[in-house]
Amino acid sequence: MAAAAAGSASSVKETLPPALGSTSQPPPVFDGTTRLYICYLCPFAQRAWVTRNFKGLQDKIKLVAIDLQDKPAWYKEKVYPQGTVPSLEHNNEIMGESLELIKYIDGNFDGPALLPEDAEKRQFADGLIGYANAFTKALYSPLMAHAEVSDEVVAALDKLEVALSKFNDGPFFLGQFSLVDIAYVTILERVQIYYSHLRNYDIAKGRPNLEKFIQEMNKIDAYTDTKNDPLFLLDLAKNHLKVR
């Protein structure tokens, strides 16, 4: 598949820098280097990281990993006042918000285009990217509230299943791999393991399009190179959710 091949070609396995904690020194901000500030465990930062990788920008955008459990004061004071990840340092500016950043990286750097020129697909993409935050809230809310699988969870997953049937020229939301897939896969990566272990609920069961989507995403190096061990993510979630 062209998308998977491109992802493999552009995703050279890199040596990841250590996460910077409270005792670390800041990088020389605004020295002309383009930097992507992430946390290796954050699904929102992972979106920007995957986009960078797929476009083959490992040498153009330097990763700076932040330890959010031991966050350095300089990150908020000198880099990004909101103190969240991801953020991008580019052309003497700092910008954040993952869904905006992936569009920015796609539109302002070289590499394979991740949004189509086709007007129908572009409109569909805008709608799905716009829904990503609501989807995330729908899936995480029952976990945070220690509630069972809700009607909202089922409806949100069914919405993705239907969306994945819109175009038949590939297994992704727009047929071919795009920013839409990046917007959802890092959330799906987590909720799949959380719901399986904490609610005994398989999010892909009875949803063949979603199952195929997850399978195909796991063939793209630009994404798989950013993944954490699922059981490690589960342990983190259990600790955060106070689950025994």
UniProtKB/TrEMBL annotation:
Where do the segments described as Disordered lie? 1-26
Residue stretches of biased makeup (Low complexity):
1-11
Q: What Pfam families is this protein classified in?
A: GST_C_2 (PF13410), GST_N_3 (PF13417)
Q: Which domain of life is it from?
A: Eukaryota
Q: By its UniProt entry, which InterPro entries does this protein fall under?
A: Glutathione-S-Trfase_C_sf, Glutathione_S-Trfase, Glutathione_S-Trfase_N, GSTL1/2/3, Thioredoxin-like_sf
Cite a single GO MF annotation.
Answer: glutathione transferase activity
Residue ranges occupied by any GST N-terminal domain in the UniProt entry: 32-113
Entries under PROSITE patterns matching the protein: GST_NTER
Family, similarity comment = Belongs to the GST superfamily. HSP26 family.
Its protein name is: GST N-terminal domain-containing protein
Source organism = Digitaria exilis
